[in-house]
Amino acid sequence: MDHMNSAITVHNLSVSYRSVAALQSITADIPAGTLLAIAGPNGGGKTTFIKALLGLISPDSGTTSLFNSTLEKQRSRVAYIPQRLSVDWDFPATVFDVVLMGRYAHIGWLRWPSDEDKAKAYEALAAVGLASYSDRHISELSGGQQQRVFVARALVQEADLLLLDEPFVGVDMKTEQLIMGILRDLQQQGKTIVVVHHDLQTLSEYFDWVLLLNVKKIALGPIDTVCMPEYICAAYGDRNIVSLKRK
């Protein structure tokens, strides 16, 4: 693969928690412009993979790079949407405040947001259908609405790489479809989208590429080459031998 066109490059990445392997010798090259799912069983290392890319956990060994450079040099090009349940929703902030935080990578923490920054935040809220909720406290929103706020925050960051950790957990189908529409639009703009995803039945409908993990890398590549019975069996076991080829 041409590394010059890589958004994410990982070589021999290993991570453990209290001597228990979470990821073992993962090597992966994810092209820029890909809409990719990270799939695998619970405990397979999906969230750990994302956190290792973001420097939120330290690997035992191996290297990671983003756009052929270090995280430190590329941090402003990366947006992260964590699992909703990992967020403190009692934080005293309005919906608009949370979205505007996505502009801080551009304006810096010690400068006031400009009118343009505020306009971008309102545009992002409108894009996710929450323009009328801008003055609400974030804790007042439903789970699906909270997830949409985080998507809006990622939009105003104008990042080239978006990492989303199970964004569809606890949201309604309308929200799921809205988020997927936004992600597809971003891909059309040349962005790279990586989503930790748990629903095997929608893999081929939503994504172009898949990384199958179960502590080790099972398979990585275009959806039609990875979502095959032998790979699904290796990742999940016999109960999940299904063909998920694109219709």
Tell me the layout of helices and strands:
Blueprint: E1 6-17, E2 20-31, E3 35-39, H1 46-53, E4 61-66, H2 71-74, E5 78-81, H3 95-100, H4 104-107, H5 115-127, H6 143-157, E6 161-165, H7 173-188, E7 192-196, H8 203-206, E8 209-214, E9 216-222, H9 223-226, H10 229-236
Parallel strand pairs: 3-7, 3-8, 5-6, 6-7
Antiparallel strand pairs: 1-2, 1-4, 8-9
Strand order of the largest sheet: 5-6-7-3-8-9
CATH architecture: 3-Layer(aba) Sandwich
E-strand count: 9
Kindly identify the CATH topology.
Rossmann fold
Shape: globular
Sheet of most strands: 6 strands, mixed
Distance between the termini: 27 Å
Q: Give the ordered list of helices and strands.
A: EEEHEHEHHHHEHEHEEHH
Could you say how many structural domains there are in total?
Answer: 1
Which class do the helix and strand fractions yield?
Answer: alpha/beta
CATH superfamily: P-loop containing nucleotide triphosphate hydrolases
- What is the share of helical residues? 25-40%
**Helix segment tally:** 10
Q: Indicate the radius of gyration in whole angstroms.
A: 18 Å
What's the pLDDT, averaged over the residues? Answer: 89
Q: In percent terms, what proportion of residues is strand?
A: 25-35%
> Poorly predicted ranges (pLDDT <50, ≥5 residues)?
242-247
CATH top level class name? Alpha Beta
